[in-house]
Recover the amino acids of this structure.
């Protein structure tokens, strides 16, 4: 059942309806708020929409890079698994 958690981002309060753990929603909002503040300091503007778009692009970049890193790690793990399997097969066939 969804609950409502009120969070503050960029000095504005927002009621968030979610089935997620309220503490997690608050943690997410704090992270977004931190990113908004950092972007605001880097690119001073009063246009909150432009700032929000910049933050959204930065968060999407973080997400895509994490996904790429996980995919690369998965590929390395798969290659190692195949090499170990080959070594085991060789060891068993040598007996």
């Amino acid at each position: 059942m969804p609950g409502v958690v009120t969070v503050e981002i960029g000095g504005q309060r927002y009621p968030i309806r979610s089935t997620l753990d309220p503490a997690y929603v608050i943690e997410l909002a704090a992270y977004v708020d931190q990113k908004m503040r950092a972007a605001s300091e880097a690119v001073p503007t009063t246009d909150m929409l432009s700032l929000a778009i910049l933050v959204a692009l930065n968060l999407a970049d973080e997400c895509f890079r994490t996904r790429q890193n996980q995919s690369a790690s998965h590929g390395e793990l798969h290659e190692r698994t195949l090499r170990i399997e080959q070594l085991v097969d060789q060891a068993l066939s040598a007996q």
Notes: The chain has a mean pLDDT of 88. The longest helix spans residues 48-93.
